[in-house]
């Protein structure tokens, strides 16, 4: 299994009208490829995967695979509300060439999916069927479902589960996960403050760095590896003026069009908005 470590960028999904702007996506990735980033998270929350059709997700993954060099890891979001659909999406991502799948917790039937047994059965079935390593994705703010440490530990026993992307914001819970899974791979941290804590723990945790400044995350990681000044406060100094929420590197372009790394971006959320 590939060793997923380092700094990863969660990749936004650019649109031009109603179509995925694959040229813009590739242009952004080409710029980031010039950095020492370890890889990319495609079709995560920043990529607004719930807003995309299955065909659109396919287009995004194919374009990303063409633009991401083999030396950088390609993590693909494949989660869905059904186990069979998740398996199908995961197998498709593997066919396209993703190195690992990030699988969000099923959440439409909140009462049923909140049960640990259902969560374990779902993830074990996906891991068993997946041709590529599976990473759990815990984002209770968006899903209403939380993966408890004991549940994560049970799922992590499967040899094809490579880690967890934890966007819960619950640091004590993350510490408990680390305690219960000492032999499992690392966890992706989703927000700056939690990334700072994770590095402070000395666990070598990866973080899904936002697209605001790939180089800043690399600098922090290198300083940590060299035993230079501790992580407390370093992250905020490296990204001056950064907002506390994990967002995109957006600035206002002509006529108020958001831009990412110089490429015009129209988000899927805006594209789907209905004016009443």
Order of helices and strands: EEEHEHEHEHHEHHEHEHEHHEEEH
The share of residues in helices is: 25-40%
In percent, how much strand structure appears in the residues? 15-25%
Q: Using the alpha-carbon principal axes, give the shape.
A: globular
What is the CATH fold-level name? Answer: TIM Barrel
Biggest sheet, strands in spatial order?
A: 1-4-5-6-7-8-9-10
**Poorly predicted segments:** 190-207, 209-213, 228-266
The CATH homologous superfamily corresponds to Aldolase class I
Termini distance? 49 Å
Number of strand segments: 13
Structural class: alpha/beta
- Count structural domains: 1
CATH architecture: Alpha-Beta Barrel
Alpha carbon gyration radius: 18 Å
- Number of continuous helical runs: 12
Q: Main β-sheet: number of strands, strand sense, barrel status?
A: 8 strands, parallel, barrel
The CATH class assignment is Alpha Beta
Average pLDDT figure = 77
Please render the helix and strand layout as text:
Layout: E1 7-11, E2 15-16, E3 19-20, H1 22-33, E4 39-42, H2 54-67, E5 73-77, H3 83-96, E6 100-104, H4 110-113, H5 116-129, E7 134-138, H6 140-143, H7 149-155, E8 161-166, H8 171-180, E9 187-189, H9 192-200, E10 206-208, H10 214-225, H11 234-238, E11 250-252, E12 258-260, E13 263-264, H12 268-272
Parallel strand pairs: 1-4, 1-10, 4-5, 5-6, 6-7, 7-8, 8-9, 9-10
Antiparallel strand pairs: 2-3, 11-12, 12-13
Helix pairs in contact: 1-2, 2-3, 3-5, 5-7, 7-8
